[in-house]
């Protein structure tokens, strides 16, 4: 009888049979290795989970996270030192309208980078297309290992990118408030347009019954 390396779900050796090992459950007889080692994490005998004790059986690129966090912190500190050396003064206050403007612009910038089809050329080295979703957006999933995986997780997550986009806009606001407001106005205008598109689609569907 020929051995099928990719058994179908529900059949012996399929997804259902592997569920116990994938979730860290008791190892089956076929998962045991000489010497009594169990593959409770779904890996080879004696192998440690990729994420260490932080996430059992799941690769968590902590070193990659550290590199990205270090890059973010370094860039922010360098900007702050440069701003101080230039003799520029920070705004004494930020009007609520500007906060709303920057918030809407941050939302749209992070969404464009993480979900837009065209910006997939930026994400492609670190992610793969998973599926298309509503409003001509796409869902990407990170790929690779280490720093590549960490970067993919960042680029595929609009909530993660929001911190970077928001920081960039605030830094621009501190140096060139008029230019930054103009950029933020453009991004905010697209945000309002998106909501109007949704509102029009809902209205049209209700009108047509």
Written description of the protein model:
The chain is mainly alpha-helical and 209 residues long. Helix content is 56%, strand content 5%. The protein has helices spanning 15-22, 62-86, 96-115, 120-123, 146-155, 158-175, 177-207; strands spanning 127-132, 138-142. Strands 1-2 form a two-stranded antiparallel sheet. The longest helix is centred in the last third of the chain and has 31 residues, at 177-207. The protein is flat, with a radius of gyration of 24 Å. The relative contact order is 0.10. Residues 1-52 have low confidence and may be disordered.
Percentage of β-strand residues = 5-15%
What Rg do the Cα atoms give? 24 Å
- In which order are the strands of the major sheet placed? 1-2
Termini separation comes to 58 Å
Low-pLDDT windows of residues: 1-52
Please count the helical segments. Answer: 7
Largest sheet: 2 strands, antiparallel
| Element string (H = helix, E = strand) | HHHHEEHHH
Helix content: 55-70%
Shape field: flat
Tell me, rounded to a whole number, the average pLDDT. 81
Q: Give the tally of β-strands.
A: 2
Q: Please identify the structural class as seen in this structure.
A: mainly alpha
């Amino acid at each position: 009888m020929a051995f099928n390396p990719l058994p179908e779900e529900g059949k012996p050796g399929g997804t259902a049979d592997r569920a116990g090992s994938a979730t860290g459950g008791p190892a089956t007889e076929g998962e045991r290795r000489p010497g009594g080692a169990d593959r409770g994490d779904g890996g080879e005998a004696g192998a440690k989970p990729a994420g260490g004790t932080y996430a059992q059986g799941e690769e968590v690129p902590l070193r990659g996270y550290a590199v990205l966090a270090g890059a973010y912190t370094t860039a922010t500190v360098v900007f702050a030192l440069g701003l101080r050396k230039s003799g520029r003064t920070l705004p004494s206050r930020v009007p609520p309208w500007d906060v709303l403007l920057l918030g809407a612009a941050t939302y749209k910038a992070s969404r464009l980078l993480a979900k837009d089809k065209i910006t997939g050329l930026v994400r492609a080295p670190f992610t793969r297309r998973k599926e298309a979703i509503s409003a001509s957006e796409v869902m990407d999933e990170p790929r690779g290992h280490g720093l590549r995986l960490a970067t993919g997780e960042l680029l595929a997550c609009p909530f993660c990118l929001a911190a970077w986009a928001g920081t960039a806009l605030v830094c621009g606001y501190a140096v060139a408030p008029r230019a930054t407001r103009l950029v933020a106005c453009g991004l905010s205008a697209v945000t309002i347009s998106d909501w109007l598109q949704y509102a029009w689609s809902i209205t049209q569907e209700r009108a047509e019954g």
